[in-house]
Every structure is written in C-alpha cells, then in structure tokens.
Specification:
heterodimer, A: alpha/beta, Rossmann fold, four-stranded mixed β-sheet, about 25% strand, globular, B: alpha/beta, Fumarate Reductase Iron-sulfur Protein, Chain B, domain 2, six-stranded parallel β-sheet, binds iron/sulfur cluster, FTHF_cligase-like_sf (chain A), NagB/RpiA_transferase-like (chain A)
Chain lengths: ~220, ~475
C-alpha cells in the first residue's frame, strides 16, 4: 500500500512544515547521575528482584555447575534445558554428575521440539550479559546457541550472573556497550518471574512465563 | 463506523448507579495513585526524567516523517516487512491478507490498544479466524464479550468473584474457585496450548526505534514474548506516533511508562525485537510485519496545539487520577481509550459528531496534567475541542457539529448584558425579584435541577449591597 505510505508521509510533512516544532534539548544527566558503588549495586539488585519473588543462589566460578545440580535435585526438578554449544553448556555437560536431573540440550529447531518444550521441561538455564542496579533487571540476549524460548517456556528459569557484570542503569548498559551499533534479533530485560495483577490487583506469579526465576550469582 | 453520537451522559449515569462497579474502581484507583506516588517520591528525579521524557517525545514529533522513513528503512534492512495504513479498514485488510497467505486459523494476541482501535478481533472472527487475547486482563474481558475498561488493566471493573463465575461458565475444565493463584494457573494451562499451536502472533508496540529498527514491548506476564516468539509469523501494529529517534531514548520513556502505569520500577519483561529468525537461530518467527496506522493521526499532527495529543505514551495515569473516570469507570466512554486521554483523542480520531460529548467529561481540575509523565496539556486541549465542537472549522473532523442556535443566543445575550452596565443592572435586579419564581421546568434549568437543588437568588444584588456600604459603582 505505497499509496497510503506516500499520502501519510506527505500529510505529515506538510503539517510539520506549516508549523515546525523546536524540541527542547534532551538532558540525560538524570540517568547519567544515577550511580551506586560496587557492593551497593549487587545488594540493590537482590533487594529489588527479591521484592518481586526472584530467588538467588550464591556460588563460585569453580562450583557453579555442581551447585546448580544440587539445587535442582533438592527442588525435585526432573530436567534442565540448556544450550550445549555455549561455554557454560560445555561445563554443565562435562561436570554434571550421575543421578539427575536430566540435562536436555536445546539442539533442534523449535518446530521439531515444540511439544517436548511446552509439555515436558521443568527448568531452563541461560547466561546473562549482566544486571542493572537501578531497576533490578537481568540483561539477556538470546543467541543461536541459547534460543529465545529457553528463558520463557520452562517453569523455572535459572540465569547465570557474574557478580562483576553490573551496571547502574539500563541507559548506561546500552550506551557504554554501544548497543545502537547492532541490535540482536531479540534483546531482553528480565526483572523477575512472570506475573500479573489483572485479577482485582492481586499479584499472582507464573501466569504465562516462568513461575520461578533463580539468579545464580557467580563470584 | 457511523456518525451517530455516543451517549456518554446516559452511560455514565447508569454506571453511577452501580455500587459494585464504583467500589471496584475506587479501590483500584486509590491503590494505583498511592503506589505511583511512592515511585516518584524523589521530586528532583521525577522532574528530571519527566522533562527528559517529554523532550524525547517532542523531538520525535519534530522529525516525525523523517523518523518514520528511517524506521521503515532500518526495519526493512533487518528483515521486518513494513506496511502503511491510512485507515483502520486498510490496517485490517493488511493483517487479513497476511493471515490468508499463511492460511492462519488461530491467532494469539498480546495486549495492543491499536488493535482495539481497529476492532481487529471482531474483524478476524468475521473472516473465520479465531483471535485469542492472551494478556490475562484482555482474556477475561474477551471471555466476557466486553470491552477493556482501562488501557493498562482491562478487567479492572470486575472483582475476583465476578471473574471466578465467568471462568466457571466459559472454560470447560474450570472448577469454581475464588483463589487468584488458581484462576491464574487455569488461564496459564488454557493459553499455553494456544501459544504452542497458533499460526500467527499479534502484538502492539510501546516504542519503535528509528535508529535501529527495533520494536519495544513492555509487559509482566510473558504473553507478549510468547505471542512474538512462538508462532511462525508475528504481526505488530502501531500508531504512527510511537516512533522514537534513538535507542537511548528508550530507557527514560520506559521508566516513566512503567512507574506511571503500575508503579513498578520496571516491568518483568522489556522485549526488544529487531529482526525475524536469522539463519542458524532455532526459534522466533520467520516473518515479522509492522503495520503503521494513521487513522486520523496525521490530521491531529497538522495542528500545532492538538499535536501534543500524540506525545502520549499510554501509561493510563491520567485515568487513575481523573475524578470523572474514577467515578464512572471506563465503559461509560464506550471507546478503546477512556479517561482524559480518551476524551481528547477519541473526538480527534472519530470526529466530534460522534465523540463531541467527551471533552465535557472533564471538571478541568488539572489532575491529569499534573501527573502526565510527558506533560501533555490535556485540559487545554479539552477546552479547545469544546470550542471546536461549536465553531465550524477544519482542524478537527466534525467541528461545529454541536453548534446550537439556542446556546449561541444565550452567550450572545450574556455578553451583551455584561458589556452594558445598564443592561447588567436591569438583569440582576430582575433576577433578584423574579429569579426564585422561575419554574424548574424551564429548558436549561431543568437539566441542572434534575440532580441538583435550584440555586436561590438573593433578593438584593451585590451591587446594591456594596453601594449601601459606601462603595461606589465605578
Ligand atoms: S495522556 Fe499522559 S497520563 Fe494519560 S495515558 Fe497519555 S502519557 Fe499517560
């Protein structure tokens, strides 16, 4: 419908040119000045995310695969969806001990994997690009190795967060890392498990996405 | 769409009789207002981010045609197919033709006010396509065959009991329960099956970034992510004003939006989509379509003052704080956008013949202007539309359609009386003597006295009293 395109743009241009508008400068200082020091950042992230039912698991670089396995076992989780081709995925499969839960690789296109994904997966684990102190949010960029649905369909989402990959604000994270130079297919901020307040303003968790979000902090 | 006038007065007086409804709204709005206030307790921060947010929206409007072209170019480069629609009929036709090409039978929808504006569900049903709302509030409203009553919380007019009955009645596997967690879980089970099998996902757009060709969506439930990730085709619909220039413009607007709307520092998900599934990726839609809708917006844009309506980021805060909306609720407006923003937007989109009453659904208290995160002069625009409704002109569709000879004569008489001291003295003296004798059945008086006591006139005029105190007339 390029006719409509040209008509719309023509009308907008005529309207604007008849009454041009000079916008005020955008002063980002209010975002630039939001700062927390190192230790405060993580504390704030935990506090804000716990307020919306996020759980935290503290571990170390050496122990995290074993700690994740022990945690899931204790929760009675039957299986864990993971990305086998990532570095984290490599460690999971190398260090996963006998005795469950079952590790399930997200290795096929969703078309051949959909039924299993929607029906038989308890938990999924992904990496993150860090977290944001201002709002208590994880930065997640899905990749071919860690597809989009891993952090959405399983009932529990585990997210690996390195304790030093923290930002003050969303704005800082995107400007410092020059996101505008190349956005991925999908970029996400995740700030808790799925929730709703659509029934009489009563909070309920786990409406369409994960019922539980567990942040695995790696120091 | 016909041009018959929508009767707000009648619908609102019916709503006012409904104690249940009033209770539901009062509770919800009080909660929202106090929680929002906590979010913006730091006044300096609020002023800073609000000024920044308003500047982002104004800058986008100042370059609107160029930014839309840039958005189109960047989306196209990313593999997103861009469509333009002047009217809702065109937009619906575009959506339908995509559906028919992929032979779609089932559509899952994330929440989108523009799709409400398009009456898209009804349109698709007519063409044999099941269109299912997946936002819990929208799902409830759809089951109830009703309209959303709030742009952020569509089912805010209902309480848990009413929803429990509705689920029991409309969902096969439902057991009666008033437990919110169980009701939510039931919806989860029903809708998960639909996400997995839907042919197309439809979403709105909270912001589209011209610089990168990115569509931003904020939500708490994950249904938006489901709708835009699981089905093989994703169609996003947006009003043409939703574009922003740069990626860095997104954080301040999102911060204002989520805090104003539901008093959250951020929503559970901020979903930024820049392309369909790429080579090697295992999920995500193979096709993304962006439908850019005008539907009267370019006309609004042409007017320097009315243009400010297009700054709106659809946070709904003006509703929560409006003394009219909080009493009568959203349905009385009989419009996809109720409350203050609806009262200025609907007449501009659908014309004053049909929506001329809405700018009068306002006490001019200015509460909405004070909390609007992008500083829209809502009340001024309200006044402007009242005046447009009675003066023929071409700024707004249907301008002059509410002009009445009787009203014009009253105002003319009033201004003549006030321009002449003699006429004024005569008139006030006459009212002092005879005003109280006027029967309440007189035309204009009747409407006033319907729900109010008739004002009593003092038997001596203010001028007379002042003269007695020795204050000269001039
Ligand atoms: S007019 Fe302002 S307060 Fe109302 S919905 Fe739009 S942005 Fe929010």
């Amino acid at each position: 419908m390029s006719e409509s395109r040209n008509a719309i743009l023509g009308k907008l241009r005529a309207g604007r040119d008849a009454h041009p508008l000079t916008p005020p400068e955008s002063d980002f200082a209010v975002l630039r000045n939001k700062r927390w020091d190192g230790a405060e950042r993580l504390e704030r992230i935990k506090r804000m995310m716990e307020a919306v039912h996020t759980e935290f698991l503290e571990t170390t670089e050496a122990d995290w695969p074993a700690d994740v396995q022990a945690f899931l076992k204790a929760q009675g989780t039957r299986n864990l969806l993971f990305g086998p081709a990532t570095e984290a995925g490599g460690r999971l499969s190398a260090e996963w001990a006998e005795g469950g839960p079952e590790l399930i690789p997200y290795a096929d296109r969703v078309e051949t994997f959909k039924e299993r994904l929607f029906d038989g997966i308890d938990a999924g684990i992904t990496t993150t690009l860090g977290a944001i102190a201002d709002t208590g949010s994880l930065i997640v960029w899905p990749t071919p190795e860690e597809p989009r649905l891993m952090s959405l369909v399983p009932h529990m989402h585990l997210a690996l967060l390195r304790a030093d990959a923290l930002y003050d604000t969303f704005w800082q994270a995107m400007t410092e890392n020059r996101w505008a130079d190349g956005m991925p297919t999908n970029a996400l901020l995740i700030s808790g498990p799925s929730k709703t307040a659509d029934i009489e303003q009563t909070l309920a968790y786990g409406v369409h996405g994960p019922k539980r979000l567990v942040v695995v902090i790696i120091r | 769409m016909g041009e018959t006038s929508i009767n707000f007065a009648k619908a609102s007086s019916a709503a006012l009789q409904d104690q249940q409804l009033r209770g539901n709204f009062r509770r919800a709005m009080d909660g929202l207002m106090s929680k929002r206030a906590v979010q913006f307790a730091d006044t300096a921060e609020w002023n800073g981010v609000r000024t920044l947010g308003a500047s982002v929206r104004l800058r986008a409007l100042s370059k609107l045609p160029e930014l839309l072209e840039k958005l189109e170019a960047n989306c196209t480069k990313n593999g997103i197919q861009v469509h333009w629609a002047s009217t809702i009929d065109e937009a619906n036709a575009i959506v339908l033709s995509i559906m028919q090409r992929v032979n779609a039978k089932l559509v899952v929808k994330g929440k989108s006010m523009v799709s409400e504006e398009m009456h898209l569900n009804a349109f698709l049903e007519k063409h044999g396509i099941e269109s299912l709302e997946s936002d819990l509030g929208e799902y409830i409203v759809q089951l109830d065959e009703a309209m959303p009553s709030h742009i952020i919380m569509p089912a805010i007019h209902m309480n848990t009991k009413q929803i429990a009955h509705l689920f029991k009645q409309k969902i096969k596997e439902a057991e009666y329960t008033e437990d919110v967690a169980q009701l939510t879980d039931l919806a989860r089970r029903v809708l998960r099956k639909k996400f997995a099998t839907a042919d197309v996902g439809i979403s709105g757009v909270n912001m589209a970034v011209a610089e990168t060709g990115t569509l931003c969506l904020v939500e708490n439930e994950g249904n938006g992510r489901m709708s835009t990730t699981v089905p093989p085709v994703h169609i996003a619909v947006m009003g043409l004003e939703k574009v922003v220039e740069k990626l860095e413009d997104v954080p301040p607007v999102i911060s204002l939006l989520t805090r104003s709307a539901t008093a959250q520092p951020i929503t559970t998900y901020v979903n930024m989509i820049s392309s369909p599934r790429k080579e090697g990726e295992k999920d995500g839609p193979n096709e993304i379509h962006l439908v850019i809708l005008d539907n009267g917006r370019s006309g609004i844009y042409a007017d320097e003052e009315l243009r400010n309506t297009l700054r709106c980021i659809r946070c709904g805060a003006c509703m929560n704080h409006c003394p009219v909306y909080t009493k009568v609720g959203g349905h009385a407006y009989q419009a996809p956008y109720p409350g203050p923003i609806g009262s200025i937007l609907m007449p501009q989109v659908e014309g004053l013949e049909k929506r001329g009453e809405l700018p009068h659904a306002c006490t001019m208290c200015n509460a909405c202007v004070e909390i609007c995160p992008v500083k829209i002069p809502i009340v001024e625009i309200m006044g402007r539309l009242r005046s447009e409704a009675v003066h023929p002109g071409d700024a707004v569709r249907g301008a002059g359609s509410h002009a009445s000879k009787a009203e014009a004569m009253v105002w003319k008489g009033w201004s003549m009386t006030y321009a002449s001291p003699l006429a004024y003295q005569f008139a006030t003296a006459l009212l002092a003597k005879l005003g109280n004798a006027a029967p309440t059945s007189l035309p204009l008086l009747k409407e006033w006295t319907n729900v109010r006591a008739k004002p009593r006139f003092a038997n001596r005029t203010l001028h007379a009293l002042a003269r007695e105190k020795g204050i000269p007339d001039v």
